[in-house]
Amino acid sequence: MSDHQHEHTAEGDPCAADSGAERYWTVDEHLADILGTVGPLPPLDLQLLEAQGCLTVERITAAVDLPPFDNSSMDGYAVRIADIEGATEEYPSVLTVVGDIAAGAADLPVVGPGQCARIMTGAPLPPGAEAVVPVEWTDGGSGGKDAAVGMAPHSSSPEGAGGEVRVFQPAENGAFVRRRGDDITAGQVVLPEGTLLGPAQIGLLAAIGQDSVRVRPRPRVVVLSTGSELVQPGTPVGPGQISDSNSFALTAAARDAGAIAYRVGGVPDDAARLREVVEDQLIRADLVVTSGGVSVGAYDVVKEALAPEGGEQPPLGAISFRKLRMQPGKPQGFGLLDGTVPLFALPGNPVSAYLSFELFVRPAIRAMLGAEEVHRPVVRAVLSQGLRSPSGRRQFARARYVAGGPGEPGSVAPVGGAGSHLVGPLAQANSVIVVPEDTTSVEAGEQVEVVLLEAADRPI
Ligand SMILES: Nc1nc2c(c(=O)[nH]1)N[C@H]1C(S)=C(S)[C@@H](COP(=O)(O)OP(=O)(O)OC[C@H]3O[C@@H](n4cnc5c(N)ncnc54)[C@H](O)[C@@H]3O)O[C@H]1N2
Ligand code: MOO
Prior knowledge:
By secondary structure, this protein is of the alpha/beta class. The chain contains 9 helices and 29 strands.
């Protein structure tokens, strides 16, 4: 056995100390309980930029035509086509300029026979005109034989356009004209129900004149970490203390899943204090995540605070603490606070907390957002190093996955060992290998199931 394989054995695994009598939940039972409890949040009208990343809950119909009026796609001259028929550089058509139309102009000159109007990109086509000739096809009103390179800026000739212009080329009816409604017509469905609102969709809503949109809002997720040993990163770490990393990783993971996340720093191991903090946070929480304090230690206060046994205070909610047939992530708490707000009590070990979030909390957030697919993508890949797994548990081994060529499976290698405290290798992982409950070893070259935690092949 290689050293690497040795690292992935179940030896020294804290999950090995189980008594036979207790009921264990499978990963699937736990997930089914979660997804059976958590559903989409009620829809809300949000301002456009607040709605970024949300899904629409109804189809959206344009109330207006886009463009709203016939307009020019070039800076040039609005003309009648009969006037410029057969125009050449040698025999240009000479037209009288009757006005100047900037984008936003409302008073438009009428273009009669032998006349034209200077026009800017986006400006309305004036009555009588049938096409636009770009300024480069004309002398720009200079009276010379050479094509113009541009127009004199309005600031340097505020009197606007007048006099004559020579046009050196003919144009077809409608040339350089963007017709009213050629993009979108009033009454047209522009976004179907369930559209994910990204920059282009938000731009489209603004273009049709909407300032708000009805969506499933992002869940507001409050992340708490518990433990008297925790200090805020950036402050000195005393004897026996560690920097609180879970609240940062889990807040970032909640954002990554599409939530609005609030990090509440380390709460000491004091059940009454924790209870107070959770109660305070309920005002802004659609979902609460805690880490730590769910095992069997004397200071594991999350259980005590949320599901007090025989105490004077009633429980804050119906939170069930359970053990799962998985590694890492064996101890888990889940239930509803106040009958409405889902609470996830995740184990404190950083790898356990993070993977539990990925497997259980992320799908809940996605379900609240109304997403059709709530799970991370799962692929099959060839294992490049053998690994061991404890019997009776589904193991989730941190790994690096590299996609294969077209039609080929990718390859995957475990990173780091099985210890739930190993945050170094976790930061190298882009995936987890799933080893089923009844499998105790997988050899190099065999295919395994891999959950992708991010786009594969991202350089570290
Ligand atoms: N006798 C038993 N002991 C343990 C068992 C068991 O079944 N019997 N289960 C082990 C397993 S598995 C896990 S997972 C942990 C879960 O423990 P808790 O959820 O109670 O977590 P804590 O004891 O509070 O902390 C565990 C570990 O993680 C560190 N930690 C906690 N919070 C943070 C944080 N915010 N940032 C960084 N690190 C954190 C903490 O210092 C501990 O080292 O229980 C096993 N024990
Ligand atoms: O191994 Mo525990 O299961 O670290 O979560």
